[in-house]
């Protein structure tokens, strides 16, 4: 058996070979899959069947690259000395160490929905700002009505009619009442509200049959908040209720961390737009749709570029055009050591993006770093987030979120780059484990991880030795227990994207566990809310 270690072909040779073998790569331990969605059988880790049968002789490409954060040596790194794979925790720590919250911007309140506060919000006035009625009824002096009942009703004259929003403040003297609507200011002299249901609803005089309790149905000024009180703390996401709280506090603008703008790119000459006819060797591009939806669910603004072919120059030019217009780029495919691994070929020589294996299944080959920084004036570098940026597609749909001072020279940090495996399940697991926490940190959120629960395994499966496994499962209630059932008969096969649509969670199997049996308790990462 060969080692799976192949030198990278020159670009012209790669193009020639693509014409003869349109995008299919047969890996030692997996069925043939199109190259844009293949993990290229990851080296150093036997297949599930090999673990079960005790055969571990096959190596899998991708292990040899190690975790280099520098450009490869001349001749490529396909056969470089093996390096220790990072654990999931180590890789996540490596990612988060390079991620911080985006600089805050001040936005009108109605443009800040879903964003995260970068400063506390204080009440500008008492809330409510004046004593007011909590009911439609009559503002009264309680002492005038202590003896009212069905048998002995009390009739009093109505001296005013007060609607919500009125500035009138008639004095309610002894033996008088004022008709009042909900929210209207309590008139001087009144000390209680009689609900309209306890009267004959008279307009010029009113018959009252139930005496009010002390201060009945009166909302006092400052009941909700006093001027200067903290209404919302920094770090909270502005959901509708919090938008309402900020507005009630007299706030018109808020300082927030902007939503990260994320370009999503699939690589692979075999990928076509879903719905278009396919020939032999072609498949629909699902990854760009899957990952764009994941970006949006995580709170980001997704720019779905779609699929690009396995061509170094095309990808390089696209990435260069995106620099300065987005905060992050998520690529899928081309991150192992195959002959057509265009992402690694383009990014590794930059010296700012590292590649290497992570001890997880699926999703072992990973790449992370930044596009190199650019230096120049905003006019040269392009204003982030605006249409018409040089080299950028004409209409990105990304809103402007602030720009540098005109004419000021600046070093513009390159966008974060996440290079994920090409198989859809691998790409999605990688997004959930590494990209989503990073996007949440960029938004200024303190809680980065999905919630987890403990669940009882309904049907068992095997797990590769030395790798944390993320098994797509469906969560079911079973009395007072939570059950985890595999979402697909094929288990965690990294190409099973249709079955992934049934999953609501990932069962996380530790590195040292090679077999999960029915009745075991596992930690489950909840990824989807119930319909």
Task: State the gist of this model.
The chain is an alpha+beta fold. 41% of the residues are buried.
CA-to-CA gap between the ends? Answer: 48 Å
Mean pLDDT: 81
Task: Give the count of helical stretches.
Answer: 10
Low-confidence stretches: 1-65, 70-82, 377-408
- Look up the CATH topology of the largest domain: Molybdenum Cofactor Biosythetic Enzyme, Chain A
CATH superfamily of the largest domain: MoaB/Mog-like domain
Query: Mind summarizing the main beta sheet?
Result: 6 strands, mixed
Helix content: 10-25%
Q: Please identify, by name, the CATH architecture of the largest domain.
A: 3-Layer(aba) Sandwich
Tally of strands: 32
Radius of gyration from the alpha-carbon trace, in angstroms: 32 Å
Query: What CATH first level of the largest domain would be assigned?
Result: Alpha Beta
Structural class: alpha+beta
Spatial strand sequence of the major β-sheet: 18-15-19-25-22-20
User: In percent, how much strand structure appears in the residues?
Assistant: 25-35%
User: What count of domains describes the coordinates?
Assistant: 4
Shape: elongated
């Amino acid at each position: 058996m060969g080692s799976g270690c192949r030198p990278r072909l020159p670009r012209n040779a790669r193009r020639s070979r693509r014409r003869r073998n349109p995008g299919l790569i047969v890996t030692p331990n997996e069925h043939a899959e199109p190259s844009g969605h293949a993990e290229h059988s990851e080296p150093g880790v036997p297949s599930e069947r090999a673990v079960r049968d005790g055969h571990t002789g096959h190596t899998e490409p991708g292990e040899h690259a190690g975790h280099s954060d520098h450009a490869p040596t001349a001749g490529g790194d396909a056969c470089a000395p093996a390096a220790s794979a990072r654990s999931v925790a180590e890789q996540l720590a490596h990612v988060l160490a390079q991620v911080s919250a985006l600089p805050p911007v001040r936005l009108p309140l109605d443009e800040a929905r879903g964003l995260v506060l970068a400063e506390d919000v204080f009440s500008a006035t008492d809330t409510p700002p004046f004593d007011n009625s909590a009911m439609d009824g009559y503002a009264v002096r309680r002492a005038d009505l202590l003896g009212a009942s069905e048998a002995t009703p009390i009739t009093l004259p109505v001296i005013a009619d007060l609607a919500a929003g009125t500035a009138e403040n008639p004095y309610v003297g002894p033996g008088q009442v004022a008709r009042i609507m909900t929210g209207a200011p309590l008139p001087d002299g009144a000390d209680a509200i009689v609900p309209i249901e306890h009267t004959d609803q008279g307009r010029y005089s009113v018959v009252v049959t139930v005496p009010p309790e002390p201060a009945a149905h009166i909302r006092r000024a400052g009941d909700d908040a006093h001027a200067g009180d903290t209404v919302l703390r920094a770090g909270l996401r502005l959901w509708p209720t919090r938008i309402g709280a900020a507005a009630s506090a007299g706030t018109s603008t808020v300082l927030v961390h902007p939503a990260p703008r994320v370009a999503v790119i699939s690589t692979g000459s075999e990928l076509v737009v879903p719905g278009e006819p396919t020939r032999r060797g072609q498949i629909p591009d699902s990854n760009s749709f899957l990952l764009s939806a994941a970006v949006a669910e995580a709170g980001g603004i997704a720019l779905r570029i779609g699929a690009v072919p396995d061509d170094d120059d095309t990808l390089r030019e696209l990435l260069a055009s995106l620099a300065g217009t987005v905060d992050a780029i998520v690529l899928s495919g081309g991150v192992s050591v195959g002959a057509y691994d265009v992402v690694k070929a383009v990014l590794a020589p930059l010296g700012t993006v590292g590649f290497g294996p992570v001890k997880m299944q699926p999703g072992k080959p990973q790449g992370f770093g930044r596009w190199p920084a650019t230096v120049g004036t905003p006019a040269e570098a392009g204003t982030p987030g605006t249409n018409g940026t040089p080299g950028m597609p004409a209409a990105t749909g990304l809103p402007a979120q602030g720009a540098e001072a005109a004419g000021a020279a600046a070093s513009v940090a390159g966008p974060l780059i996440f290079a994920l495996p090409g198989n859809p399940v691998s790409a999605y697991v990688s997004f959930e484990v590494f990209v989503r926490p990073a996007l949440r940190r960029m938004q200024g959120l303190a809680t980065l991880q999905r919630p987890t629960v403990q669940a009882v395994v309904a049907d068992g499966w095997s797990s590769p030795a030395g790798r944390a496994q993320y098994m797509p499962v469906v969560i079911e209630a079973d009395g007072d227990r939570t059950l985890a059932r595999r979402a697909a008969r094929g288990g965690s096969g990294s190409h099973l994207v249709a079955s992934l649509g049934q999953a609501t969670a990932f069962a996380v199997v530790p590195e040292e566990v090679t077999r999960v049996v029915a009745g075991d308790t596992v930690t489950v990462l909840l990824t989807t809310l119930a319909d």
